[in-house]
Specification:
By secondary structure, the protein is an all-alpha fold. The protein is 74% helix and 0% strand. The protein contains 2 helices and no strands. α1 (10-36) runs antiparallel to α2. The protein is elongated.
Length: 72
């Protein structure tokens, strides 16, 4: 498929909602655990993980907010 469809199915919408929820939840949990951690190496790894999930969440939102016909 060269371009995504202009409309998505109900099943696709549920999957996208799940992906957003998973990434947001993982980011929040990693941030919380990083704030509770005493070991700097583990704290840094958790912060990096939280940032990664936040980035993925934002990328999904950006794709969903892209207007039809503007994708490359």
């Amino acid at each position: 498929m060269q371009h995504p469809p202009n409309m998505i199915s109900s099943k696709d919408l549920l999957y996208l909602t799940d992906m957003l929820s998973w990434n947001l939840n993982a980011s929040k949990k990693a941030n919380f655990y990083a704030s509770q951690c005493q070991m700097p190496e583990i704290q840094q790894a958790l912060q990096t993980t939280a940032q990664m999930h936040q980035r993925h969440y934002q990328q999904i939102l950006n794709h969903l907010n892209t207007q039809p016909g503007t994708l490359n």
